[in-house]
Amino acid sequence: MGKCDGRVTLVAICSLQLMAALQRQVFDFLGYQWAPILANFLHIMAVILGIFGTVQFRSRYLVLYAVWLVLWVGWNSFIICFYLEVGHLSQDRDFLMTFNTSLHRSWWMEHGPGCLVTPVLDSRIAPDDHHVITVSGCLLDYQYIEVLSAALQVLLALFGFVYACYVSKVFQDDEDSFDFIGGFESYGYQPPQKTSHLQLQPLYTAG
């Protein structure tokens, strides 16, 4: 019963991770955030692998899924530090999310709740193919929206890691138990055969 509950819970967590990653992928595409797009794609593949491993009783797939979650927590922790500008990180100087290929920011910068976007006409600081805007009136700044999104990913990843380790351990115990029960057959064991103690004597007949 516990094994079944663990599998169901892990599938539910993976489903939540998949929905959150797909939602995040859409907004990262809209904001031309190439580094998060690549990370989200890898995460989606790992979550699908975790679901497949849970349904098909593949402990190795769950181990790979758990290892990826450790990397995923590290990546989202970096995103939190980046948008909060921890240490020497700066959004005005470092365009890591776009691989330094453009000046695009998060999609939420212009489309956050309550944000009013005003274009600045005839700006001399605007590069080619770019425009300068001012954003005001946001109920929640885009930095904090990105931080909350990354924090949600970290929370789901922690739950997924715990349940992946638990379900993988259960699968491995079941495999060891099955090997022990069928161990004699796997080594070609044959029960001893009874030998007859009756000795055959030659029969002589008079000619």
Automatic annotation (TrEMBL):
InterPro entries xref list: Na/K-Atpase_Interacting (IPR008516)
Q: What's in the GO CC field?
A: plasma membrane
Pfam families noted in UniProt: NKAIN
Query: Which membrane topology describes this protein?
Result: Multi-pass membrane protein
**Keyword Glycoprotein annotated:** yes
Q: List keywords of the entry alphabetically.
A: Cell membrane, Glycoprotein, Membrane, Transmembrane, Transmembrane helix
Primary localization: membrane
Example GO BP: regulation of sodium ion transport
Q: How does it assemble?
A: Interacts with atp1b1 C-terminus.
PANTHER family xref list:
SODIUM_POTASSIUM-TRANSPORTING ATPASE SUBUNIT BETA-1-INTERACTING PROTEIN 1 (PTHR13084:SF4), T-CELL LYMPHOMA BREAKPOINT-ASSOCIATED TARGET 1-RELATED (PTHR13084)
Q: Which family does it belong to?
A: Belongs to the NKAIN family.
Q: What is this protein called?
A: Sodium/potassium-transporting ATPase subunit beta-1-interacting protein
- Species name: Salvelinus namaycush (Lake trout)
Lineage of producing organism: Eukaryota, Metazoa, Chordata, Craniata, Vertebrata
Q: Which gene is transcribed and translated to give this protein?
A: LOC120027469
